[in-house]
């Protein structure tokens, strides 16, 4: 993967040195409200390793979101294969450090990953799997052009599936 660059962000593959920064994000109770629980260090390391394997197997995964002005990892964003109602779908997923919420970084990163998925991988559709109570994630999905498609039982509970169809060249 080439690095994706936006006005304020670099989006690049995870490296093992990203563990401390990502752990600070994924271990935070507030950030992980819509997950079963915050991650411990081993789960965070596994998260990085699983995404590194996705880069090999799928050509994409969740990538580190790096603030250009400080070179700080402030989250992750990317494309992940998911099984929804027996169909393989590509999800845009994202986590941004709570210290940077409300500044548009999730929208900026998700938009860049969406363009990358459509242009590089020629995907025709992208989804986001969102807990119905997670209104900030719903806002990010809507700002990036995704609309509510359906409810689906994913990850052991009901989620809302937001989707966007790619209708032509980017």
From TrEMBL:
Q: Recorded GO terms, molecular function?
A: acyltransferase activity, transferring groups other than amino-acyl groups
Q: Which Pfam families match?
A: Acetyltransf_3 (PF13302)
Q: Which organism is it from?
A: Salipaludibacillus agaradhaerens (Bacillus agaradhaerens)
Q: Which PANTHER family match?
A: GNAT FAMILY, PUTATIVE (AFU_ORTHOLOGUE AFUA_3G00765)-RELATED-RELATED, N-ACETYLTRANSFERASE DOMAIN-CONTAINING PROTEIN
Protein's recorded name: GNAT family N-acetyltransferase
The record's section on Gene3D superfamilies has:
3.40.630.30
SUPFAM superfamilies associated with the record: Acyl-CoA N-acyltransferases (Nat)
**N-acetyltransferase domain location, by residue?**
9-168
């Amino acid at each position: 993967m080439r690095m994706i660059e936006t006005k304020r962000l670099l989006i690049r593959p995870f490296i093992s040195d990203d563990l401390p920064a990502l752990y600070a994000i994924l271990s935070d109770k507030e950030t992980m409200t819509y997950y079963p629980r915050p991650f411990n260090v081993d789960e965070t390391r596994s998260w990085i390793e699983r995404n590194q394997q996705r880069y090999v197997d799928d050509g994409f995964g969740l990538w580190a979101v790096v603030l250009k002005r400080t070179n700080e990892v402030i989250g992750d964003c990317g494309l992940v294969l998911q099984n929804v109602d027996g169909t393989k779908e590509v999800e845009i997923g994202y986590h941004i450090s709570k210290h940077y919420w409300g500044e548009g970084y999730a929208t900026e990163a998700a938009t860049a990953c969406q363009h990358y998925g459509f242009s590089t991988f020629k995907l025709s559709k992208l989804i986001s799997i969102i807990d119905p109570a997670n209104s900030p994630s719903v806002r990010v999905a809507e700002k990036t052009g995704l609309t509510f498609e359906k409810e689906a039982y994913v990850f052991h509970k009901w989620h809302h599936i937001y989707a966007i169809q790619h209708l032509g060249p980017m």
